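user: Kindly work through both lines:
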Amino acid sequence: MSDNISVTSGTLTVSDTSKLSLQNDVTVSTNTPMSVGTLEMNDNNFNISATQGADLTIRKAFSLDNGSTLQMNGADLTMTEYATISGILEPSGGTLLFSKGGSVSGTVNSKNSTLSLQTANLVFTGLLQTNGSTTLSGASWLNLSNGTLEVEGSLTLDDVTTSNSTVLKLTEHTTISRNSPFTVGSVDLSGKTLTLGSTDTDLTIENSAPTEGGSAGTFQMQGADLTWTGVTAFSAAKVYSAGGTLTLASGSSLSSTGLIDLSNGSTLVLNGAFGQSGGELTAADATLETAGDFSKTGGTLTSNNATFKLNGNVTASSNTPLSFKALTLNNNVLSFGAQTDNLTLTEELTLNDPNGRIEQGSTALQLNGGVSIDSGGVLRLTDVLNTGSSKVKLNGGLLAIDNDTTLASSILHLAASTLEIAQTKTLTYEGASIEIGASALSIIGGGNFYQH
């Protein structure tokens, strides 16, 4: 076929043993269904201009050449055998039915259309374009493990196969929903917003060394989890979580205009060292978990209503005072960098294991909820401790004074405990009188104790 044709009545049928071979770009105008055995594109374009119901069926294996475009203009296309799509397939409102699967190294544009799969996988190494009016039928046969998914609007990805080689690319603000976790290799936000549409839509971006690049947009996690397995530097991207878990690899950082905003019981899991030199990190009713050193040299950290939880020994350094609602040592050691002036906690700090302790250095401790040093617990002071109107509870543990210290907080003795004052050092106690009670309070170390 080398010229346009028009079919106005009946059915145009080419037998299964025959073939329709394009010698030039061809447009078929029809208001009746068409059926062909073999369609040879020969690097030409085939344009179907049809009324509703004037659909095309290809009965033999079909290859859409790299240089060809098949434009359906709203008509349905049924491929009854295996299809190889190297060119561009444009349904533009109709249904694409792959009866026995196929492979796509080119482009399938399913915007405003239905992509229907039956009996066998449709495997992408090329591009699948979707929008909010795309319908996926038989999605368990859709394999995007090595393909690119381009989305805009909204999309449900239940049962679709993805992997760490899948590229997710946004062309507009998009909401993706899924009934189970999924993995991609990279996300290109292109300045747009990706919203995870349900608490089950957990996304892992699995890349050994991603760069922010096209991720300089916004992630709205809502209550879903978002994980980066590779080191990620947030200099422009914004991430909001309202109940999910954001997990970052060791070495990740926040700078410039980057933003991480955690609320509604969210958790930030840092699987190693994390540095903030700029940007905003806000944790309201949230938990910051870290297995490595936490360093802040710039930007804004708002964490006074957050829990700081250690998953390893951690050195915390900050150019501004650190403030948390609570501290969970988890049997690990918290120490401070030289520039860290102050740590404030709102809730009571409980110490009950010698492995879970604070190495104070020159950082003042403002424990507004007080501290309970239980059996096995150790609090070793080398700088200021202030608990405000709350108490220092000696409940079977050890309070050690390693430098000259003035303690304005009151000590409450609840169980047999030890007060150790290093030799030549002095504890000046300005709190209420200590009621020893029936349990022994041992004062050791050879230092001096003065009560005012």
Q: What stands out?
A: The CA atoms of residues 353 and 376 lie 5 Å apart. Residues 231-347 form one domain.
